[in-house]
Amino acid sequence: MKIVIAPDSFKGSLSAVEAALSIERGIHKAFPDAETFCLPVADGGEGTLDTLVAATGGKKIPVFVNGPLAQKVEAEYGILGDGETCVIEMAKASGLSLIPEGELNPLKATTYGTGELIKQALDDGYTSFILALGGSATNDGGAGMLQALGLKILDEQGMEISTGGSELAKVCTIDTSVFDNRIKGCKFLIASDVENPLIGPRGASHVFGPQKGATPENVQILDDCLAHWADEVEKVTGVRLHDLAGAGAAGGIGGAFQAFFPSQMKRGIDVVIEHTGLNRALEGANLVITGEGQVDFQTASGKTPMGVAQAANSQNVPTIVLAGSIGTQIDVLYQYGIVSVNSIINKPMTLSEAIEQAEELLELGAEQVVRSYFHYQNLNQRRVVM
Fold first, then answer.
1. Burial 134-149 (b: 16+ CB within 10 A, else e)
2. pLDDT at residue 317 above 90?
3. What's phi and psi for 134, nearest 5 deg?
4. How many Å separate Cα 346 from the centre of its chain?
5. How far apart are CA 137 and CA 213, in angstroms?
6. In the predicted model, what is the mean pLDDT of the chain?
7. CATH of 2-41+277-385, one of 3.30.530.20, 3.40.50.10350, 3.90.76.10, 3.30.565.10
């Protein structure tokens, strides 16, 4: 019996590595002799750097940068085991988790620190990059990141604009003359499952702004500012970001990469699957168990359980999903080889209790699902023999 364990993190409670180990313990309680392969994964959001570095035997480089509200933070970038590929996780420098609750402000939050991470990696000699865009606190169209790399973004007085999404309304001139010349000689793979355009009802501000602290009034201001920013970018680069797929990723930084960098966008989960060797691990497997904190209709758009299930289904390996909570419209998942979606919550409890007990709940949930699955597998096999 071979079982592949490939969960994402359970945000707020367990990292992907911790989740995988909890699931493994549960499996071995039910089947001590089971052959298990732990391959923690991520979908391009928080945890992607840790997952890729751990899977490839790489390392992390600490860097002090400006955080999303210009506070100094200790971030890091990763180097894969090949010694050549640099991984930058935007959330490490410009993420929601770096801002205390109640202080979120996408009108002011900046991607400057993400640019500083890229600059440091360039200074250290790296030319091949993977950029994970999830978990950002920003809505500045990537302007801060570009400024950190030398782009001059000027108002009508010829002065540099300040930080934050609201400042984009002031943009009058974009001067590329001292933009870091090394960038054009590099490769940038953008890991993101977001296909939203930059502006409009499906754009960065309307879809993701509220979770970053934007009020309804703020959302419209930010959308108008990004529209003006897109107009100015198009004048300089010829790239129309307004309705470009993926330009709305991470508050519009996805568009900045498409307009100013030699870049390619790819689903985050596909990038992680490629580098963790999941497809090789699936060979000869009887079952895959994946999971994350919340599974709902958004999961089908390229979140970890969906990506893992698609990879497993291509090799005719069934997938079971474990989740902290289950939302609506999950039926679509079953057409991609997912056998069942199971909540690990086994009794009435508060969110804080669920987070505190997550390790135990996940272990127990894994034990129960594999007992049930293989019981019915064995039962069906006996019926075929009879």
1. bbbbbbbbbbbbbbbb
2. yes
3. -75, 160
4. 28
5. 9
6. 93
7. 3.40.50.10350
